[in-house]
Write a structure and sequence with these properties.
Blueprint: E1 11-12, H1 17-23, H2 34-42, H3 50-60, E2 65-68, H4 75-86, E3 95-98, H5 102-115, E4 123-126, H6 133-141, E5 145-148, H7 150-158, E6 169-172, H8 175-180, H9 184-193, E7 199-204, H10 209-218, E8 223-226, E9 237-243, H11 249-257, E10 265-268, H12 272-284, E11 289-292, H13 298-309, E12 315-318, E13 333-336, H14 343-350, E14 360-366, H15 371-381, E15 386-388, H16 400-408, H17 411-416, H18 429-436
């Protein structure tokens, strides 16, 4: 269209982890301040992750950055470190970071506080589900960094409690999830209140069209960096699925929890009711556990997470409220009690384990009715997931609807595979899987 403003050009950074490692072996090589290096050392970090190596230098140069990075890649430090290096203590709000969930906002704020250790920089997290008074006080006192969820932050904006005139560093973390959760109007309202001259860093695990267009519109000649291609999982995570009858899921879980090295276990269920039922069953069996989902108030959710992080409970049962933003070291196993419908959800869930160079396990329970979702998942991941069959828990047949579908596929297929006229209930697990997954 004549006269249309050309889209900003995006330049890609290095994508090779090996290339990154050969260039940057320590944080000192990133030319950070002594205060920042001391804080990093206190956190036990030694080598920048690929996303940190790629994003931090550009951030320090004042360039806009668009980053694709999964949870667990160190992306928080990738955008917070440049912000901390550039702001001035005592000048009020200068850095605004927007996050999709309260849990993620808390995590980002905690990381910012740890990385600003030894300075007078103040950080505050603002989110819904808690009282307004402490947040109003923080805004009045002029904290240098605010980490917020869009909804609550807009509430403060509408009531005139926020002065964005001094904000010259804007961060959008997990932009894809914010758009999925319907926060686009709030993001747009925040952007309208921001100074036009600013530095922007947008990070997202995926780059659908909506996020891509938003990134192009709100940044100026950004550098595009990518640490982990979309749909991949972190190194150090061993993946396996167990085939199981639906009514045998609790028994299989209890069986696995008796195994060695099942030390700290995060379990994802599809529904809040399912999480409550499962946690109650675990408690009756004497397994220290807690539950975390959106029907629990913020105080309970924070308490559950703290108990899990401190080792007071061995098992945390959660819905996808904990899928992103949950930052707990030492999770040995992530269990998908229900198969995720979205492959991206699977990636983010299992990213809770195998972090910081440790080894973790991702275990998924698959019923006969879930096999279609499993095939979709493997197709999107472009790899098979290891199967495990335990005869006492394995499905011996399929639900009635699946059995009728198998019958409609015809006895010819069964005969061709040497299964004769067996019904679905008479098939072995191996025969059933061959039938439902021909050529798989």
């Amino acid at each position: 269209m004549a006269g249309a403003k050309p889209r900003p050009r995006i330049r890609r950074g290095a994508l090779s982890g090996a290339h990154v490692e050969s260039q940057t072996k320590t944080f000192a090589q990133l030319q950070l301040s002594e205060e920042r290096l001391a804080a990093i050392e206190a956190m036990g970090w030694t080598t920048p992750t690929p996303i940190q190596h790629q994003a931090i230098p550009h951030g320090l140069e004042g360039k806009d950055v668009v980053g694709i990075a999964q949870t667990g890649t160190g992306k928080t430090a990738a955008f917070i470190i440049p912000a901390l290096e550039k702001l001035t203590a005592g000048k009020g709000l200068q850095v605004l970071a927007l996050c999709p969930t309260r849990e993620l906002a808390q995590q980002v704020a905690e990381d910012a506080e740890s990385l600003s250790k030894g300075t007078s920089i103040k950080v505050e997290a603002i989110y819904g589900g808690v009282g307004y008074a402490p947040q109003i006080k923080a805004l009045e006192e002029g904290y240098e960094i605010i980490v917020a969820t869009p909804g609550r932050f807009i509430d403060h904006m509408k009531n005139g409690r926020v002065d964005l005139s001094g904000v010259d560093y804007l961060i959008l973390d997990e932009a894809d999830r914010m758009l999925d959760m319907g926060f686009r109007p709030q993001i747009e309202e925040v952007l309208r209140g921001m100074p036009r001259k600013r530095q922007t860093m947008l990070f997202s695990a995926t780059m659908p069209n909506g996020v891509h267009d938003l990134a192009l519109r709100i940044t100026q000649d950004p550098i595009w960096v990518e640490a982990t291609p979309s749909g991949t999982t972190a190194e150090g995570v061993d993946e396996i699925f167990y085939s199981v009858k639906p009514d045998k899921k609790p028994d299989l879980l209890l069986h696995l929890l008796t195994k060695d090295h099942w030390d700290q276990v995060l379990i994802f269920t599809r529904t809040k009711a399912g999480a409550n039922v499962l946690e109650a069953r675990l408690s009756r069996e004497g397994i220290p556990s807690d539950v975390m989902h959106s029907d629990r108030n913020m105080k309970h959710r924070t308490r559950a997470l703290d108990r899990f992080a401190e080792g007071d409970v061995r098992v945390l049962v959660a819905t996808d409220v904990a899928q992103r933003g949950l930052d707990v070291d030492g999770i040995s196993h992530v269990v998908n009690y229900d198969v995720p419908r979205d492959p991206e959800d699977y990636v983010h869930r299992i990213g809770r384990t195998g972090r910081a160079g440790s080894t973790g396990w991702a275990v998924t329970f698959v019923t006969a009715a879930d096999l279609g979702y499993l095939k979709t998942l493997e197709y999107r991941l472009d790899r098979p997931i290891e199967r495990e069959h335990l005869s006492e828990f394995d499905y011996a047949g399929t639900p009635r609807t699946e059995e009728r579908a198998a019958a409609r596929r015809g006895r010819k297929s069964r005969s061709a595979m040497g299964m004769g006229s067996k019904t679905a209930d008479e098939l072995s697990p191996e025969e059933l899987e061959a039938l439902l997954n021909p050529g798989g």
